[in-house]
Design a protein that fits this description.
This protein is 51% helix and 0% strand. By secondary structure, the protein is mainly alpha-helical. The relative contact order is 0.06.
């Protein structure tokens, strides 16, 4: 008799904890988009004269 009560209690605890599935997660919420590195304007600046002086002469 006592074992039946324990089994019932264990089942009730399990259903209280795991009885419902969690909410669905939308695919849009699974992805985070951001640039890998911040944009550096100095890196994109190209001066052909400086290039020629540094590497050509």
């Amino acid at each position: 008799m006592q074992e039946e009560e324990q089994v019932g209690t264990v089942e009730a605890r399990r259903r209280a904890r795991f009885g419902a599935l969690p909410e669905r997660v939308r695919p849009q919420d699974m992805v985070e988009e951001r640039p890998a590195t911040p944009r550096d304007p100095a890196r994109d600046a190209y001066d052909p004269d400086e290039f020629a002086v540094r590497y050509g002469l």
